[in-house]
Amino acid sequence: MKIGLFPATVSPVATPEFLRALGEAADAGGFHSLWVPEHVLLFDEYGSPYPYAHDGKIPVGGENGMLEPFAALSFLAAVTSRVRLGTGICLVPQRNPVYTAKSVADVDWLSDGRLDFGVGIGWLAEEFQAVGVPWEKRGQRCREYLEVMRRLWEDDVSEHKGALYELPASRQYPKPLQKPHPPIHFGGESDAALRRVADVGQGWYGFSLDPDAVPERLALLTRLLEERGRQREDVLVSVCPYLLGADLEKVERYGEAGVDQVILPAFAFDVDGIRSLLDSFAETIVEPAAAL
């Protein structure tokens, strides 16, 4: 069983000293991965329901902005040498795909090929509106933008003509170190999210999903993969318990349900706290989970 981390990379917590301590402890503690979230804006008032809290509100205030994920991962790449670095998740359809492809490739390059590209279509309509991107067709836009990125990552001369985006013949370097590109992990628990995994993904990132809910979702994912000539083993299945909490017993239950990686919420709010928390996780979860 692989064990990852989902830390609070938010202001004012995520100082350079905090990120350095986080990265060093993750490397030393044997964790498989570190995943950072994305929201370029948060709002005091919004109508979009946050899907992972009972009250429909994200448990981060507007004054606690998140670090831009690729900036955070670039910093973490410089203070780590082993742990994988992931976006958990990147809001692809509200971003320019050429700039996103560049960020992905550069972080993969600078981290010696340790990037996992976690992707989602978003839940916060107000954020899309604020950055001037239509909320409608965001699933279609996500798929097409990923195809644009793949052309930029894989082709010497990159070009794309689609319904929502056109890329003229052009070149973007450096290419990612991982070939043909960093693994794409789709976030989301819906049937549509699982179809995206089956079509083009190398990973599925389930969020705030109880172990008892995993088998039904995995059964559907397995069927969708087989319909496309793929196997369940083609996909790394990760779940973050998020607000549900986690201990070794729950990690074991995730493993029994078919999960490959549990991404632990690592909510500490100062340097001493993050070091202490990760030391505790390493002793009580990472080491015994290695035998699962």
Oligomeric grouping of the chains: single chain
> What is the N-to-C succession of helices and strands?
EHEHEEHEHHEEEHEHEHEH
The tally of strands reads 11
**Mean pLDDT over the full residue set:** 96
**How far from one another are the termini?**
6 Å
Catalogue the unreliable spans.
none
The proportion of strand residues reads: 15-25%
Sheet with most strands: strand arrangement: 1-2-3-5-8-9-10-11
Whole-angstrom Rg: 18 Å
By secondary-structure content and strand pairing, the structural class works out as: alpha/beta
Query: Tally the helices: what do you get?
Result: 9
- Shape summary: globular
Percent range of helical residues: 25-40%
The biggest beta sheet reads: 8 strands, parallel, barrel
Record keyword descriptors for this entry.
292 residues; 9 helices
